[in-house]
Automatic annotation (TrEMBL):
Residues 255-409 form the C-methyltransferase domain. InterPro entries: Methyltransf_Zn-bd_dom_put, Methyltransf_Zn-bd_dom_put_sf, MeTrfase_14, SAM-dependent_MTases_sf. Residues 13-74 form the Methyltransferase putative zinc binding domain. Gene3D superfamilies: 6.10.250.3100, Methyltransferase, zinc-binding domain (6.20.50.110), NAD(P)-binding Rossmann-like Domain (3.40.50.720), Vaccinia Virus protein VP39 (3.40.50.150). SUPFAM superfamilies: S-adenosyl-L-methionine-dependent methyltransferases. Coiled coil: none annotated. Signal peptide: none annotated. This is Methyltransferase. It comes from the Bacteria. It comes from Candidatus Falkowbacteria bacterium RIFCSPHIGHO2_02_FULL_45_15.
Length: 417
């Protein structure tokens, strides 16, 4: 079991340590997706890092082969806020309802969210009268604390776990949503979770699901924050190596398709659903190098088709704007070389801290969405395409009259909503 995965290039699997990682798709060198630039910073050098999507032929884990210092990827000023995304709010409220009913949670029980961001998930548990604790390395922790969600601002490790147990006691529920794929020292994280979790407690992780990534060509979910792209077989291997049992797993719609995994300490009975999901993964070719390279070829074609569609629109004299600037969109913008000559600007909600900044790599200005309704460009590229139907209906309701472009899984123009 690896104790600590080094920063920079890695030549072994993050779960099983096999040294024969297969590169499935290379994106070249890419910037950190949340490193938005000020007007002044555009005139300075910009650092980029290797971005290679790889597969372990032994345990089947899809992963990156380069790890950036987490203090660069998740700095204190990290701009993402969970509470700005309606889809996530709905998902988190449903998760709180689900866990309260499934595990008959009581007021004395403690629920911990590692990587809690602004505390949106824990608000749902607190509203039910449960004790809650967030752990968050960025300044979003201050936002959570202002909501009266007790939050420790720190990068999670075993020392932080001991501090949390000392102050709050053992946790009945520990949750990591997406952040479980973000943290590099995976087995140290599992040791910390083991320290914090009650003997009959449950650890629940939510991560984007490799099977859904393949089905909908989610190439934009591959970026430096996501060190691993989970499927059920490697998750089971990870938990077994950490002294846990994967007791259940389920597919959910969040973030374009995710896997929610339930793990408990020690040897526990496994739901029949685990084997069913692994069989589906095997049938889809998730552990087959040739099948995964075919998937990569489809992603490259999708990128090229999007370039051609945008060029065609631009060459006709049309104006193009983007709607939504999630971090994941910057993989797509940089991989497809979508720059300010193709996309005039990108719109964000009025509260977004990204307004007035420029996207990493391509340097497209981010503006208040009011500009879209005022200028009415002929086309709007939906960069939060995984919630595209919802976004298009909302933009229509707010007054946008032009045509939409959905970038993935197939680039297409949408007029009638």
């Amino acid at each position: 079991m690896p104790n600590k995965i080094p920063l920079g290039h890695i030549d072994e699997c993050q779960i099983c340590s096999d040294k024969n990682l297969e590169t499935i798709l290379t994106f070249g060198h890419q910037p950190i997706v949340q490193n938005y630039l000020s007007a002044e910073q555009r005139h300075e050098p910009e650092t980029t890092y290797p971005l290679n999507f790889c597969l372990c032929p032994i345990c089947g884990l899809a992963q990156l082969d380069y790890i950036i210092d987490p203090q660069l990827v998740f700095p204190p000023h990290y701009p993402y806020r969970t509470g700005l995304t309606d889809m996530l709010i709905r998902n988190f409220r449903a998760l709180a309802d689900n866990l309260e009913q499934r595990y008959q949670l009581k007021s004395a029980d403690l629920v911990v969210d590692i990587g809690c961001n602004d505390g949106t998930l824990l608000e749902g548990f607190k509203a039910k009268g449960l004790r809650v604790l967030g752990i968050e390395p960025t300044n979003a922790a201050a936002v959570a604390n202002k909501k009266n969600i007790p939050t420790i601002q720190a990068y999670f490790n075993e020392d932080v776990a001991r501090q949390a147990v000392s102050q709050y006691g053992k946790a009945k529920i520990i949750v990591m949503t997406n952040s479980f794929a973000h943290i590099n020292n995976l087995f140290a994280i599992m040791r910390g979770i083991k320290l914090m979790l009650d003997e009959d407690g449950v650890f629940i992780s939510e991560s984007q699901y490799l099977l859904d990534m393949m089905a909908t060509l989610e190439l934009d979910t591959i970026y430096h924050e996501h060190l691993r792209f989970y499927s059920v077989r490697p998750l089971r291997e990870l938990f077994a190596r950490s002294g846990f049992s994967l007791v259940n797993a389920e597919r959910i719609a969040a973030a374009g398709g995710s896997i929610r995994a339930y793990a408990m300490k020690g040897q526990r009975a496994e739901s029949p659903r685990i084997e069913e999901l692994i069989a589906a993964e095997k049938q889809a070719g998730l552990y087959d190098i040739a099948a995964m390279r075919q998937f990569a070829a489809q992603m490259i074609k999708a990128k090229n088709d999007l370039q051609m569609l945008l060029l065609s629109c631009k060459n006709s004299g049309a104006r193009l704007a983007g709607i939504g600037s999630p971090g994941r969109s910057n993989t797509l913008l940089n991989f497809a070389k979508i720059d300010p000559y193709l996309l005039d600007y990108i719109c964000e909600k009025s509260r977004s801290p990204k307004i007035g900044m420029f996207t990493p790599g391509m340097h497209i200005p981010v503006v208040d969405e009011k500009k879209l309704f005022l200028e009415q460009p002929e086309y709007a590229l939906i960069l939060s395409w995984h919630i595209g139907e919802e976004m298009m209906q909302l933009m229509r309701k707010l007054g946008y009259k032009g045509k939409f472009i959905m970038p993935l899984p197939k680039a297409r123009v949408v007029d009638n909503i």
